[in-house]
Amino acid sequence: MTVGDPSPGTPKNELDTPALLLDLAVVERNLQRMAAFFTGSELQLRPHVKLYKATPQLAQLQLAAGAIGLTCAKLSEAEVLAAAGVTDILIANQVVGPAKIARLVALAKTCDLKVAVDSRANVAALSHAAQAEGISLGILVEVNIGHNRCGVAPFGPALEMAEFVLSQPGLEFRGLMGYDGHCTLKVAESERRALALQANRLLAENRRYLEQSGIPVEIVSGSGTFTYRFAAEVEGLTEIQAGTYLLMDTAFQEHGVREFECALSVLATVISRPAYPGGENMAIVDTGRKSLSPQLGNPEIKSPAGAYVRSLSDEHGRVILENEAQDLQVGDKVELWVRDANGTINQFDRFYVLREGILEAVWAIPLCGQST
Prior knowledge:
By secondary structure, the protein is an alpha/beta fold.
């Protein structure tokens, strides 16, 4: 906690707003559900921390629940995790450019660090930097399994990239990764299983292709919250990168991930009850697009019942009131579900951690707004 933070024991409705709320009991249930899924399986969970910007308390909860390590999107996330004592980290992204590569090899001295690659130029630059620092840097070749973002083409190109990594001093080929992002929000729920199986089988087939060529493949990493159940059916994967399951949002639930609960909400304050014609059943709250990401649609109202968001501007929200919600007055609180967890968390600098509506802790979000 920092100076000015409310004290533990503060009731939720006494928090200043906008406030990003985290229900710790829900987080614990989500952890337990995912841990139970992996119990007895050779497949391991390596959760993605980009969701919560590498907040160390959440990372440690995932590790304590059985995760073998953590996945990052950004080098800065890996740096925060390593500083918090995390020893097994995958950056599931390409780290490019002299400044970032210098940070990467420095970090690799402190933990078991692995990074994705998909170009010879990047591999050569990583090799040069690793040699200069006298370290061995773990490498995963990213394979394009249908998402058409990063990654080399399957089979021959993947083999050639792995062979090139093996030829470069200072680098250790650890395996493959692939992301089935085209099987998430972009497809109908009824189509997801077949597409996810197709994508992850392709990743597993690339493992067998490399091994038949004499290259051992220790790690095959991929999938996410939308597809982990289907990827787990594919023999040959070793770890799953699911992340959003931990905190969830209403968009994920609406699109088919219903076994996990939403732990996030945003508390807002009514700052105006318009009296102009047409505004009689409206409340204006102090929470807009700069607090709640509308990328996946407007958020739903958690409480009070009988209210819905009509629109969000930068710092204001227009809330339509029906039934008992019409009694809201200036100064009253409105709680909104988070619809886009990734985009919303990135706009806050702290979680207000609650249990049964009472503040238990305040956790700083260490990389709020940072993107390196």
